[in-house]
Amino acid sequence: MTLDGWERRLDVVIRYVPYAALALPTALAGVTEPRAAPGTLALAALAAAWMLWLVTLHPAWAERRAVMAVYFVGLLGLVAALIARTPWFGFFAFTGYLHAVHALRGRWRLAGVTATAGLMAVSQVGGFPTLSGLSGLVVFLVVYAFNASLAGAMTFLGWVTTEQSERRKQMIGELADANARLEAAMAENAGLHAQLLAQAREAGVHDERQRMAGEIHDTLAQGLTGIITQLEAAEQAGDRPAAARRHLRTAARLARDSLAEARRSVHALRPHPLDEARLPEALTEVVGRWAEVSGVAAELVTTGDARPLRPEIEAALLRTAQEALANVAKHAGARRVALTLSYMEDLVTLDVRDDGAGFDPSAVPARSPDGGFGLTAMRERLRRVAGTLEVESEPGAGTAVSACAPAVVAG
User: Fold this and answer.
1) Is residue 242 part of a domain?
2) Where is the domain boundary, 85, 117, 132?
């Protein structure tokens, strides 16, 4: 049986058994002492009314200590008065043990049980008249000591058990509250987790769109621009068939290269020049092809200890160089371009300088009128690898583009 089941049964015993314990000696007294029966019956009725009013009909008063103290003292007085009429009411004196636990708190329970043990001992030795002699008093003290010791020990054990039960109830209540708070926190965390997942998906979609926009700009847009330039040059060649064929061959090569780079961009692969070469060699190839197509002199100088870097860093620098050269071809009208790739201890930088027309960097929109992303795409690409981009230019004084990224070694 559970602890709550025992407590419910004990509550039934405390409320109703005392009436049976009162009825039995009242009946026995009526049989054995019929002349005193009316007075005994009246006193027993008063005791029953006392319990009925203060315990049975008002169970909530058990929490009112002053009321319960008055009740218990009155109960002991009624028990003593009934035992004085006949020792049979020792049966009813047992109620004092039950109600001491029910009505009193703390150490007052032991005091109530001890007083009840005295009344029990009086009834067991034959009533109050037996205490007049020395021998009767000695017998009473022995019986009282036995009753008080046994009842006190049982009460103390019950007290300890009740205290432990209360502590367990308190702990169970605290655990239930903690579990409820934990469930609420888990539900809140689940909501936050779902929100973070949604935000992560949105951020991933945004980043992928930005990546694809940059890749399209760096591959298809630049390639198509070069193809258009070569086709226009072939058209303008006029009566120079050899020059026209050269421009057409260059346009075809640019188309094939752009198509291959577009496919690689879709699969998020490294740029083709970096497949089988390190960054300096890949940049040399890019610069050479650009100079051939644009007709502008360009050279690359590498300084420091060149070493393989993480693929995303090399790809960002290569794409930055391609975009910077494409801008020179479209806008600068330059005669010479110089690129410097510098390997330092913690950083790698790429500087692209031209002697072209220059411009005002503060007046450049985030997106060019022809749909390109220009400097914005370069900055975004470098930002994804913890890099930076600086642009210095003045109208008529050329342009300097400087890209900086951490020199994180591959592997």
Assistant:
1) no
2) 132
pLDDT tens digits, residue range 308-350? Answer: 888 888 888 988 988 888 888 888 788 899 999 999 989 999 9
- Lookup: tokens for 320: 């930055």
145: left (phi over 0), alpha (psi -120 to 50) or beta: alpha
Longest dimension (CA), the chain: 156
> What is d(CA 349, CA 33) in angstroms, rounded to the nearest whole number?
120
The CATH number of whichever domain residue 344 belongs to comes to: 3.30.565.10
Cβ(104)–Cβ(98) under 8 Å? no
Report whether 220 contacts 262 (CB < 8 A): yes
pTM of the predicted model, to two decimals? 0.44
The pLDDT tens digits for 220-233 are: 666 667 777 767 77
> From residue 258, how far is each of 148, 216, 309, 379 by CA, in Å?
105, 10, 25, 22
Q: Residue 328 and residue 375: Cα distance in Å, rounded?
A: 12
> Measuring CA to CA, how many Å separate 77 from each of 84, 211, 227?
11, 95, 118
- Angstrom CA distances, 141 to 90, 100, 126, 134, 154, stand at 16, 22, 13, 11, 20
Pairwise CA distance, residues 123 & 29, whole Å: 13
Neighbours of 25 (CB within 10 A): 23
